[in-house]
Write a structure and sequence with these properties.
The chain has 13 helices and 21 strands. The structure holds 5'-deoxyadenosine and iron/sulfur cluster (SF4).
Length: about 450
């Protein structure tokens, strides 16, 4: 058994946060101790992201810092996990001498073995992708808290032409419903109040005849005082059944992250998104009818190859029609190995930046307006702890995933559900007064004027 200390740093999406917890689970079983300090660790692991070039550049920068630790303590093992490991494989070891280990997302079970190899002075590489690995039986290492991530499926079969994920995380496969439900039960017993079910494309979840809607209703039934969230949904297969399931279950949050990517059908086709804007907007309308008060967020890419000013205006038009509560907006970044990489990256950098800034500005304006309309309304928040800025205030979140700041009070603690009245709002934050502390049983949230 190893007594070594391991330090993990996580970059990128929530799937990586969940994966780091899996890795810690695997290593703790082998006797490794978790450490929060890279200087004292025997093994330093970076769980990396490849989605855009700047994500990878950050890791190279970090490897530069870690070199100093290795100079002081040459026996320290430095490893790259996650998407960059899968994408760059042995190139990483060859180009970056500081790297001892390169282990992709489907080879974490063998991590202890690869670390041993590295302790013996050899480089460890494990980058095979699997069609079946779901780590279903692995217990992730989690500190106590209120919110937990659970990955319910891995990989992606969509092959959007800009995206590296199908290559770095492999084919879609789902965990068993039973093991997910028993994980939620354990979290509930430990006092967690919120679970986010994760997958690159959760609507494709499938286990023994159960689809994602079935998983959601089973998850919701575990503990009615626990909020259930999920991400990410693909517009092609967000089913009516799923929408009704959200509407029917008090503790399934009224919040859907539904990446649109572009407002132009021509660009959507080049992206291989497999839906039209008309289909997308219909879906939004339907969801708004079935789930009163539902809120949406999205992902948008500006400057995809051949994107014209007209295409850009169509994206702006969709944003104005949907009025998203939030959006993650990116400049197109060519990724080697993807279909779009073979297209000419012909939108000039300054045009990409200009378009990106325009949509960011529009989203801020819309978010501000939506939040202003909430002033005077009452809503239930789950209190998460002190606000980032001051310990005179507490911070919580609405069912629709908005942050609300309230004054501290002796009766209210992290983990409580509290009814608040909104009295002020910026584009990013709501401020409120406490109306009443609620019982643990959740009431479906209604934003009443
Ligand atoms: N360039 C820019 N953004 C990208 N995304 C995925 N691949 C790229 C890329 N090559 C964005 C998409 C996706 C989100 C997770 O990242 O909007 O939904
Ligand atoms: Fe990438 Fe598209 Fe799969 Fe999302 S759905 S992970 S954007 S390929």
């Amino acid at each position: 058994m190893s007594e070594n200390k391991v330090y993990i740093e996580t970059y990128g999406c929530q799937m990586n946060i969940a994966d780091s917890e899996l890795v810690e689970g695997i290593l703790n079983t082998e006797g490794f101790k978790s450490s929060k300090n890279p200087d004292e660790a025997d093994v330093i692991l970076l769980n990396t992201c490849s989605i855009r070039d700047n994500a990878e550049q950050r890791i190279y920068g970090r490897l530069g810092n870690l070199k100093k630790i290795k100079e002081k303590k040459p026996e320290t093992v430095i490893g790259i996990l996650g998407c960059m490991a899968e994408r760059l494989r042995k190139d990483l070891i060859e180009k970056k001498s500081v790297v001892d280990l390169v282990v992709g997302p489907d080879e974490y079970r063998r991590l202890p073995e690869f670390i041993d190899t590295a302790f013996n002075g050899e480089k460890g590489i494990g980058v095979k992708l699997s069609r079946t690995e779901t780590y279903d039986d692995i217990v992730p290492y989690r500190e106590d808290g209120l919110s937990a991530w659970i990955s319910v499926m891995r990989g992606c079969d969509k092959f959007c032409t800009f995206c590296v994920v199908p290559f770095t995380r492999g084919r879609e496969r789902s965990r068993s419903l039973d093991s997910i439900i028993s994980e939620i039960k354990t979290l509930s017993d430990r006092g967690f109040k919120e679970v986010s079910l994760l997958g690159q494309n959760v609507n494709s979840y499938s286990d023994d005849g159960n689809d994602f809607a079935d998983l959601l209703s089973a998850s919701a039934a575990v503990d009615k005082s626990m909020r259930i969230r999920f991400t990410t949904s693909h517009p092609q297969d967000l089913s009516d059944k799923l929408l009704y399931t959200i509407a029917e279950n008090e503790n399934l949050c009224n919040y859907i992250h539904l990446p649109v990517q572009s407002g132009s059908n021509r660009i959507l086709e080049l992206m291989n998104r497999t839906y039209t804007i008309e289909h997308y907007l219909n879906l939004i309308e339907k969801a708004k009818k079935i789930i009163p008060g539902v809120s949406f967020s999205t992902d948008i890419i500006t400057g995809f190859p051949t994107e014209t000013f007209e295409d850009h205006l169509m994206t702006i038009d969709v944003m104005s029609q949907v009025r998203y509560d939030g959006a993650y907006m990116f400049k197109y970044s060519p990724r080697e190995g993807t279909k779009a990489y073979k297209m000419n990256d012909d939108v000039p950098e300054e045009t990409k930046v200009k378009r990106l800034n325009e949509i960011i500005e529009l989203q801020q304006k819309v978010s501000y307006e939506i939040n202003q309309e909430l002033i005077g309304t009452e809503t239930t928040i789950l209190v998460e702890g002190f606000s980032k800025k001051s310990d005179q205030f507490l911070s919580g979140r609405t069912d629709t995933n908005k942050v609300v700041i309230i004054p501290v009070s002796e009766e209210i603690a992290a983990g409580d559900y509290v009814k608040v009245k909104i009295n002020r709002a910026t584009s990013a934050t709501l401020f409120g007064d406490v109306v009443e502390k609620k019982s643990a049983e959740l009431e479906k949230e209604k934003l009443t004027a």
